TrEMBL record:
Its EC number is 3.8.1.2. It holds the Pfam family Hydrolase. This is HAD-superfamily hydrolase. It is an enzyme of class 3 (hydrolase). It comes from the Bacteria. The keyword Mitochondrion does not apply. GO terms for molecular function: (S)-2-haloacid dehalogenase activity. Keywords: Hydrolase.
Length: 215
């Protein structure tokens, strides 16, 4: 018999916690080293931007800053539907969705956010983008918009971080944070999350559903 879930909803970072977006950036850039430099610059610009600017513009600016063609951003958007979920993500999400609400909070445009969410293959209760919120994570607006749409208090919603910055952003609005650190990023000076794993399967235990499927 399954116990009552510990949370009423689970929100996810989309482009790192659920999808392997790093591989696509690397492929568009031409190799892993160039892709990492480009993506790293994009993340730096995003976290410094705050107020929303078009996602593709920030990606193009990041490419130029690294001495790369700005047209890489257009190519990235054109190949967006090649994004793939981490292997266990669809199954874990499907199991969660049987018991709690599920949603994503992502740093991209409305169009790209919904296209990316569709790649997971699960019907989300809400998809919140930086464009809809008017600000990029880790600003509080995207997280708060997701909570508002779910109609739930922060303490009843578990946030699954993709990057260390989500630990600070989601935690700052009162959500407990579980870190899916798939690519083994350094936590730096961020607060410790509830737990840190490089797979999504242990999330079911954290939510109180570990006995519903095998790990």
């Amino acid at each position: 018999m399954t116990a009552r879930p510990r949370y009423d909803a689970v929100l996810f970072d989309l482009l790192t916690a659920l999808l392997d977006s790093w591989s696509l950036w690397n492929e568009v850039a031409g190799d892993a080293e160039t892709g990492s430099r480009w993506r790293g610059e994009y993340l730096r610009l995003t976290y410094a931007t705050g107020d929303y600017r078009p996602y593709e513009d920030v990606a193009a600016e990041a490419a130029r800053a690294q001495g790369l063609p700005a047209g890489l951003a257009t190519r990235l958007a054109g190949r967006w539907d090649e994004l793939t979920p981490w292997p266990e993500a669809p199954g874990v999400l499907a199991e969660l969705a049987r018991h709690v609400k599920v949603g994503v909070v992502t740093n991209c445009s409305e169009e790209l956010g919904h296209r990316a969410a569709a790649r997971v293959g699960v019907a989300f209760d809400t998809v919140v983008t930086a464009e809809a919120a008017g600000a990029y994570k880790p600003r509080p607006e995207p997280y708060r918009l997701a909570l508002e749409r779910l109609g739930l208090p922060a303490e009843r919603v578990l946030f699954v971080a993709g990057s260390r910055y989500d630990i600070l952003g989601a935690g700052g609005v009162g959500m407990p944070v579980w870190w899916h650190n798939r690519i083994h990023m350094d936590r730096g000076g961020m607060p410790a999350p509830l737990a840190e794993h490089d797979r999504l399967t242990p999330l079911l235990d954290a939510v109180g559903l570990g006995d519903t499927t095998s790990a």
